[in-house]
Amino acid sequence: xxxxxxxxxxxxxxxxxxxxxxxxxHVEGTVRIDGRLDGDIQTNGQVIIGxxxxxxxxxxxxTVISSGRxxxxxxxxxxxxxxxxxxxxxEIMTPILIMEEGAKLQGVTDMGVSAWxxxxxxxxxxxxxxxxxxxxxxxxxxx
Length: 143
Prior knowledge:
- With 143 residues, this protein is mainly β.
- 0% of the residues lie in helices and 52% in strands.
- Strands 1, 2, 3, 4, 5, 6, 7, 8, 9, 10 and 11 form an eleven-stranded mixed sheet that branches.
- A hairpin with a 5-residue loop joins strand 1 and strand 2 (11-15).
């Protein structure tokens, strides 16, 4: 595992292609996995899994973007994005899930919705219903 700082506060942790790590990664910035991780990733930043990347375990992050393989429980506070070469087997908990055509997903997805509203929302008393203000049909006569 390599820690590199590229200008400013952008910390990037890289697990290079061909590297196998069994354990945990806890960082503040971005994690890029091009090798294999058997374990856990935890960051408030991004987890990026390249086409050759493989993660088995758990991922907790702000954003997860994958072009590789994940067999894990994935929790993302912002979003999960599966690119066309991605395969994910497991659980996803995120408010936003984006999948490109060709991405594969097998598992359970929880986007925070537990029910839907059966009726339209009630308007506040000082807000009028816009449907009652629809324009009346006006006939224009030629002179």
